[in-house]
TrEMBL record:
It holds the Pfam family GATase. The lineage of its organism: Bacteria, Bacillati, Actinomycetota, Actinomycetes, Micromonosporales. Residues 118-376 form the Chorismate-utilising enzyme C-terminal domain. It catalyses: chorismate + L-glutamine = anthranilate + pyruvate + L-glutamate + H(+). This is anthranilate synthase. GO terms for biological process: L-tryptophan biosynthetic process. Its EC number is 4.1.3.27. Residues 442-619 form the Glutamine amidotransferase domain.
Length: 645
């Protein structure tokens, strides 16, 4: 059964019409109806994508538990990876669909959050103190779920809710109903996770939530929101995290476009678009981008551990994706995958779940994050009859918020402090340093995929890069340089196997005089071996940009750290020779160090928060890998000019 009217007639008779999906993508003036059989598969690689036929072929419902494919922690609730094998695809005019869909309220009872406000606030407090405060990461997303019971037939209720979302919501990336026979999902997701079309990979980090009501929101309040450091830093951090993913799935890395204001009926969000060229199978793209930092946190692997520690139930489909896979007319694979947020799941017995989450950063407050979960649920709850429908429902605002010149200026100003390396297009080879071309570098990853962005910058400078996890054995002598990278955790831990392994690696590199560069966690461990143990900061430097002096030159760079080494002098005598330190004038924090054959940076030169990062990275590489015939460590003379020349 493929025709919308036939499908709706079956539902009104109380008959299951079989699996289907009804989708409005972005602001299209039509809906797409997909029908076919369903199949459950174990892995993303098993999602069917038959060759030879253009158009959409499979719609996959990817649950959060698939994160285990990457070896990451989760509360495994066994939610299946279900695939709708598309055999029918038709387009329905939006006005025709609205006329046909049931126009009636949805009746529900017993609505309540599974975790009360006070308990959720206590969890927020623990994450801020015990996780961000102890160096486990920059931000984390903790969810809670509103549950209720639908009094109407579940599928009829979902279709009625879809109509209300189509009429009352705006700015959604996908508005949809998906019915597999075993479950029904209905929602209006604001966020594209990843798409692939004509070889162009795109991602869409969204963060920051401005709550408003009415057709004439308070523009002054919006301007205060756009200037709020918490909201600004939150978007920068998820931008960095998705750039890490783009550096993996797009061979030439990602370019940043934006920021923009995404306006919805109850909320406005700030967002960027990322784009890059890639050739991977789209199922690999899905796997390597599980899941968006806007619904997990960063760094990703440890964010999953933190979520598993603090969330007592599985996430089911929340934070997963819908993924529409197919081929274009030229036979190239296509992918369109929104994040499963602002989505309700309804069981065949009428049990309703609406999960929502808040992003916790160092500026977060428990009360603010509780309020944010309520606001994010508002649009879906209203459509499902669980909250008041806005008095202005269905009416367009008198003007878009983003049309205000002050708003446009505030958005544009957000790019002023960011690294042009990620914002500008460059000709191939434009950033190469002749003395570095062809030199081989091994990056040892300490469980933070910032290393993917580092690899992209190093390749742009002309080096040949190999990336290896910290626990993977292999030779290191074949490389001109070893970079010991960033990662979460306490560098002073005597029991963490990662810290022990990285200390042993650095000890070996120092003993053999092999050129070594250490970043963030690697820098902290290197400083410890030189007699400068790390100390926990009173306030974490997570997603913080600062102007500092690096060996005489002013540099603006981004930090993601809770720990730092400290020193009371600019020079240090060590068993490996004299070491020069770039220190904070106020507290002695060691921002960078260099000795003969080694160097370290506490900040992240690869971050979008580091406009001078590439210059600093190139300078230190010049120190460590001078031209042939020049002694190691003579690439700099103790100071540099302000432009790094």
């Amino acid at each position: 059964m493929t025709h919308l009217h036939d499908l709706l007639a079956a539902v009104s008779r109380g008959t299951d019409p079989g699996p289907f999906a009804l989708v409005r993508r972005a602001d299209a003036d039509q809906l797409e109806l997909f029908t076919g059989a369903t199949r459950t598969v174990d892995r993303l690689a098993d999602i069917p994508l038959p060759e030879g036929v253009s158009g959409p072929r499979t719609l996959a419902l990817v649950p959060y538990r698939q994160i285990t494919e990457r070896g990451f922690a989760c509360v495994d609730d066994g939610t299946p990876l279900e695939c709708l094998l598309v055999t029918g695809h038709e387009r329905v005019d939006l006005a025709e669909a609205l006329a046909a869909l049931p126009d009636r309220p949805v009746r529900t009872t017993d609505a309540a959050f599974d975790i009360g406000d006070d308990e959720y606030a206590a969890t927020v407090g623990r994450v801020l103190a015990d996780e961000i405060g102890h160096g486990e990461g920059a931000n984390f997303v903790i969810h809670r779920t509103l549950t209720a019971t639908v009094q109407d037939p579940p599928l009829a209720a979902a279709l009625a809710a879809l109509r209300r979302l189509l009429v009352n919501e705006r700015g959604a990336y996908w508005t949809f109903v998906v019915h597999t026979g075993t479950r029904t999902l209905v929602g209006a997701s604001p966020e594209r996770h990843v798409s692939v079309d004509d070889g162009l990979v795109m991602m869409n980090p969204i963060s920051g939530t401005f709550r408003h009501t009415g057709t004439t929101p308070d523009h002054d309040a919006l301007l205060r929101f756009l200037a709020d450091p918490k909201e600004v830093e939150e978007l920068y951090m998820v931008l960095d995290e998705e750039l890490k993913m783009m550096a993996t799935v797009a061979e030439h890395g990602g370019q940043v476009v934006g920021p923009y204001l995404k306006e919805m009926s109850h909320l406005a969000h700030t967002e960027y678009l990322l784009a890059g060229r890639g050739t991977r199978d789209v199922r690999e793209v899905l796997r390597e981008t599980m899941f968006a930092p806007t619904v997990t946190g960063s760094p990703m692997e440890n964010a999953c551990r933190v979520i598993a520690r603090h969330e007592r139930t599985g996430r089911r489909y929340y934070a997963g994706v819908l993924a529409l896979l197919g081929h274009d007319d030229a036979g190239r694979q296509t992918l369109d995958a929104p994040i499963l947020i602002r989505t309700a799941e309804i069981s065949p017995t009428g049990a309703l779940r609406v999960p929502v989450g808040a992003t916790l950063v160092r500026h977060s407050t428990a009360a603010g994050e509780v309020a944010e979960t309520h606001a994010k649920a508002a649009a879906v709850l209203a459509a499902l009859g669980l909250g008041p429908q806005a008095a202005t429902a269905g009416r367009e605002p008198t003007a878009r918020l983003a049309d205000d010149p002050r708003v446009r200026a505030a958005l544009a100003a957000r790019n002023a402090p960011l690294a042009r390396f990620w914002l500008d297009q460059r000709a191939p080879g434009a950033a190469e340093r002749r003395e570095l071309v062809g030199r081989r570098v091994l990056i040892v990853d300490g469980e933070d995929t910032f290393t993917g962005m580092l690899a992209h910058q190093l390749r742009a400078l002309g080096l040949t890069v190999t990336l290896r996890p910290w626990h993977t054995p292999g030779t290191i002598r074949a490389y001109d340089l070893v970079l010991v990278g960033p990662g979460p955790g306490d560098p002073g831990s005597a029991t963490d196997p990662k810290m022990a392994a990285l200390r042993a690696l650095l000890t070996d590199l120092l003993a053999h005089g092999q050129p070594t560069l250490a970043v963030c966690l690697g820098h902290q461990l290197l400083a410890g071996l030189l007699g400068l143990p790390a100390h926990r900061r009173d306030a974490p430097y997570q997603g913080l940009q600062r102007q500092i002096r690096i060996f005489g030159a002013p540099r603006r760079v981004g930090f993601y750290a809770t720990f730092t080494a400290r020193a009371d002098a600019d020079r240090l005598d060590t068993a490996y020779g004299p070491v020069e330190l770039a220190r904070d004038e106020d507290d002695g924090a060691v921002h960078a160090l260099r000795g003969r054959g080694f160097a370290g940076m506490q900040f992240h030169p690869e971050s979008v928060l580091s406009p001078d990062g590439l210059t600093v990275l190139a300078d230190l590489l010049g120190w460590l890998l001078p031209p042939a015939g020049t002694p190691v460590g003579s690439g700099l003379t103790g100071t540099t000019t302000a432009d790094g020349a």
